[in-house]
Amino acid sequence: MKDKAYEILGKTIVGVYIKYSEDPHNTPRSQLMLVFSDYSCYEFYCTCDDIRPTNGIWPLAGFDHVFRYMNEGYFMAYQALIDPDTGNIAYESHDR
Predict the structure, then answer these.
(1) DSSP-derived secondary structure for 49-93
(2) CA–CA distances in Å: residue 44 to residues 16, 58, 59, 62, 75
(3) Is the predicted pLDDT of residue 1 greater than 50, yes or no?
(4) Model pTM?
(5) pLDDT score at 35
(6) In what order do the strands lie in the sheet with 41-46?
(7) Pairing outcome for strands 41-46 and 78-82
(8) CA distances (Å), 71 to each of 10, 15, 58, 77, in order?
(9) Count of other CB atoms within 10 angstroms of residue 84
(10) Distance between CA atoms of 15 and 41, rounded to whole angstroms?
(11) Are 35 and 18 a contacting pair, CB within 8 Å?
(12) Quick one: CA torsion of 61, 3, 77, 9, rounded to 10 degrees?
């Protein structure tokens, strides 16, 4: 993931698009595009498989729960958190 992922913090998502390649030889294989209320967008993609949505929102998961979940058996390459009071980045980590 590019280091600019922090740019989506604090934005309001108004649209989500997920696209899968019909041809298994195309790259990327799948893309997820987030569209924000200021008409900007951010793209995630996977070159080797399909991006799949999960079972939905995890109510009251919080930063600690997500951090523990994301670290279970995986390498955390990037994380960023926003301070909801100021709108500024409160924490950012680049582990690669």
Answers:
(1) S-----SS--TT-HHHHHHHHHHTTS---EEEEE-TTT-SEEEEE
(2) 11, 20, 23, 22, 18
(3) no
(4) 0.71
(5) 92
(6) 13-20, 30-36, 41-46
(7) unpaired
(8) 23, 28, 17, 10
(9) 8
(10) 9
(11) no
(12) 0
Label residues 29-47 b or e (16+ Cβ within 10 Å = b): bbbbebebeeeeebebeee
CA distance to 5, 8, 15, 62, 85, per residue, from 43 (Å): 10, 10, 12, 24, 27
Alpha-carbon gap, residue 12 to 82, rounded angstroms: 13
Q: Quick one: average pLDDT of 42-61? A: 82
End-to-end CA distance of the chain: 10
**Structure tokens, 59:** 């109510």
Residue 88 structure tokens: 């500024």
